[in-house]
Amino acid sequence: MVGISVIIPMIRYDHWLDEAVNSILNQQDVTVQVVVVHDGVEPKPSVSWHSDPRVTIVHSEQRVGQAAGMNLGVQHAQHELIARLDSDDLSSPQRLAAQVKLMDSTPTAVANGTRVMRIDDKSSETSELRYPVGTDVRKNLILQNVIPHSSLLMRKEAFIKAGGYDASIHQMEDYEFILRLALQGPIGNVDEILTYYRVHPGQISRGAPPSGSHINKVILARKVLSKQLGVSYFSFFSKALLWRAVQFMRYYKIVKPGYERNP
Q: What confidence tens digit (pLDDT) does each residue in 127-141 have?
């Protein structure tokens, strides 16, 4: 069976983390290594999944953030396919096998995601987050991030060539990374709901400032990808203006964050 290393960065122990880890340990038709990155959190060996031989505990004594945490986790990955899951989200048992199948259908593909269902703090389904599906959705990345981070599966080689996550930015690091990853080859989305995204008061997307290095780096990465994909400068420029406007409206609460806005 295909081996996949799944990185789960965490900043606290709670029942959502337990559910997230177990949703990966229960994957079907693949072999998994679960890399739980303890970002400034002391490991707790009493937790049941700590003793599972498929789990690798990575401990950073100091808080390093999501981007550096992902880079640290990948350093301990044993397999050539790398997946991601947030510590409060869930994966369907069929998720990774379905993503491998889509990846195999396009030999040049470097990554993919899945359709995503929102869940609440009690894990009850609410509504779907809708993104384009298919074997290559990279042109959609010019306007917004259409690869849900918790559903990401990628080739380790492509991760390395892309340079990993930019640890100097602490917002939109997933979007900026995926834009650079898309330079390596096609990225798609599986046409099945296989990832469950938890919406709760602790999320920080609304708080990302509408200006700063994270915004500048995302726009630069979008420009580079647009050029590679043959997107006209006018199309790139108009999408950049629209996206910037949405960031200001989100920050000043004129519109909802994307995870609430996308019906």
A: 999 999 999 999 999
Mean pLDDT of 161-190: 97
Q: What's the rounded Cα separation, in Å, for the pair 203 and 37? A: 19
Whole-angstrom distance between the N-terminal and C-terminal Cα of the chain? Answer: 36
- The residue behind tokens 């990993």 is 164
What count of residues does the chain have? 263
- Digit-coded pLDDT (tens) for 24-81: 999 999 999 999 999 999 999 999 999 999 999 999 999 999 999 999 999 999 999 9
Helix (H, G, I), strand (E, B), or coil: what is residue 214?
A: helix
What DSSP designation does 252 have?
T
User: How many whole angstroms from its chain centre is CA 238?
Assistant: 26
Q: Which domains does the chain have, with CATH numbers?
A: 3-261 (3.90.550.10)
Question: For the segment 95-115, what is each residue's pLDDT rounded down to a tens digit?
Answer: 999 999 999 999 999 999 999
User: What 3-state DSSP class applies to 177?
Assistant: helix
Q: Which helix (H) or strand (E) holds 189?
A: strand 187-198
**Residue showing tokens 């200006």:** 211
CA distance 176 to 225: 11
Query: By C-alpha distance, which of 33, 23, 31 is closest to 3?
Result: 31
Query: Which class for 46: exposed (0-12), middle (13-18), buried (19 or more C-beta within 10 A)?
Result: exposed
